[in-house]
Amino acid sequence: SVNPAVLTEGSSTTLIGNFADPDESDTHTVTINWGDGTPNTEVDLAAGVFDFTASHAYDDNRQVNAPYIVTT
């Protein structure tokens, strides 16, 4: 989930997520593409950790106020 999902330029949003892996001894790296051309955010997770959170500020809105698409 992204909270808030709608924001004004210059504001921040927080992405909160989780996933499952039957092998709890695996470590993971979550890569987040914020969709605004800034470098991806990488969140390194220790073995057995399946929840993550990351925040990001959007400095400027897109032309014609089109939405940004966030992918992980």
Give a verbal description of the structure.
A hairpin with an 8-residue loop joins β1 (2-3) and β2 (12-18). Helix content is 0%, strand content 36%. The protein has strands spanning 2-3, 12-18, 28-32, 41-45, 51-57. The N and C termini lie close together (11 Å). The strands form 2 sheets. Strands 1-2-5 form a 3-stranded antiparallel beta sheet, with no helix packed on it.
* Helicity level: under 10%
Mean pLDDT: 88
Distance between the termini: 11 Å
Radius of gyration: 14 Å
* Spatial arrangement of strands, main beta sheet: 1-2-5
Low-confidence stretches: none
Provide tags for this entry.
72 residues; three-stranded antiparallel β-sheet; two-stranded antiparallel ribbon; 0% helix
Itemize the secondary structure elements and their pairings.
Elements: E1 2-3, E2 12-18, E3 28-32, E4 41-45, E5 51-57
Short overview:
The protein is mainly beta and 72 residues long. The protein is built from no helices and 5 strands. Helix content is 0%, strand content 36%.
